[in-house]
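Tokens in:
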């Protein structure tokens, strides 16, 4: 079997999908896009596919090594995302050729179902693409919490902060705590709560706030500080008993090496950015040696979710899976591109998938209809009161 062609689909608001074709008529799908950089992602895939065209798609590791190491300059968000999507598609082809789900090729399932969590937005979400963040409306957050609970989800995640100063006011600290308290009072103690801070905290601000949140028994606090401060994560982890999760903006085992020693509880690599199924599987194994759980990041489309689930089923130290399908834009739009009936949570869990490859059927007609030549979606840009840049 040989790779004979490929096709890329640029889909709003922030997705790129890849189809790889073979001379046996077997096709594989992946998500190689870096959010808000679709044109750059597409160019990177075009270059990386030179390593795969005309070759046996089942030699996945050989292709991975060639793509990752075949250039003098290696790694980074763009190149790793391109490799990630290609890698997913090659695993999809291999599973379909052999007639088994990808998790079977990873050693078989270690669990029968995958626990997932749902997003309920949070501070600034109503004005995500505006210049200035809007103060959180707790009533809106609680409405979305009720919607997710009505759908049967047992864990929800939200962001309780607005744009933050390096060291913010006591009022803002109290606002953060009050929002978390309101959600905990709404859901009770049987529902898990995770908080995602998008790197908005400084190291100083995180250590100031997190002890105040311990009484709410959170599942984890996600990405409290920016990834460039990985070497200092021990300061954050030691400041609180609440589990710390991070890693969606790290792209290889090498970048996880020091982080796993810092005391974090949960690693969050993204299968569409961290080297695909091949590298994410290795990150999970490395994390297990440090007693660190896996909660893969997945805030894009259904193909990335399907790839994540294949790893989750075969990963002993898996904790919970992020997903956005059915949670509003962009999830509702992207869900129409595949038959994702097997990916719908039931009582907060996704049951073991049985179809070969990644386990999904792509609606190519819908994919082509959704694809656009130019995608002008851009990352939000926020500013502080003094006009300086603010993390969103």
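Residues out:
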């Amino acid at each position: 079997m040989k790779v004979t062609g490929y096709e890329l689909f640029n889909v709003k608001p922030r997705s790129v999908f890849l189809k790889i074709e073979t001379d046996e008529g077997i096709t594989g799908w992946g998500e190689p896009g870096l959010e808000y950089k679709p044109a750059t992602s597409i160019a990177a895939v075009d270059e990386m596919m030179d390593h795969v065209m005309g070759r046996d798609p089942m030699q996945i590791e050989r292709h991975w090594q060639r793509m990752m190491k075949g250039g003098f300059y290696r790694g980074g968000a763009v190149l790793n995302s391109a490799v990630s999507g290609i890698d997913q598609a090659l695993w999809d082809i291999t599973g379909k050729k052999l007639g088994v789900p990808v998790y079977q090729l990873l050693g078989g399932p270690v669990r029968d179902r995958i626990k997932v969590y749902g997003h309920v937005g949070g501070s600034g979400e109503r004005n995500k693409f505006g210049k200035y963040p809007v103060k959180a409306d707790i009533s809106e957050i609680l409405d979305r919490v009720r919607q997710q609970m009505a759908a049967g989800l047992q864990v929800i995640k939200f962001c309780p902060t607005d744009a933050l100063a390096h060291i913010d006011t006591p009022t803002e600290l109290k606002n953060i705590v009050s929002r978390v308290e309101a959600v905990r009072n709404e859901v009770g103690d049987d529902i898990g709560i995770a908080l995602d801070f998008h790197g908005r905290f400084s190291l100083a601000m995180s250590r100031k706030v997190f002890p105040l949140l311990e009484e709410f028994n959170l599942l984890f606090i996600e990405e409290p500080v920016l990834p460039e401060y990985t070497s200092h994560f021990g300061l954050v982890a030691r400041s609180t008993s609440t589990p710390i999760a991070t890693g969606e903006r790290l792209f290889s085992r090498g970048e996880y090496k020091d982080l796993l020693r810092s005391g974090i509880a949960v690693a969050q690599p993204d299968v569409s950015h961290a080297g695909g199924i091949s590298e994410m599987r290795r990150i999970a194994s490395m994390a297990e040696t440090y007693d660190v759980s896996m909660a893969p990041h997945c805030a894009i489309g259904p193909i990335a979710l399907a790839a994540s689930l294949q790893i989750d089923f075969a990963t002993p130290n898996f904790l919970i899976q992020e997903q956005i399908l059915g949670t509003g834009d962009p999830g509702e739009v992207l869900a129409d591109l595949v038959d994702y009936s097997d990916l719908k949570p039931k009582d907060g869990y996704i049951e073991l998938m049985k179809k070969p490859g990644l386990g999904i059927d792509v609606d190519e007609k819908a994919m082509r209809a959704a694809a656009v030549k130019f995608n002008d979606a851009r990352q939000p840009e926020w500013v502080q009161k003094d006009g300086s840049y603010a993390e969103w």
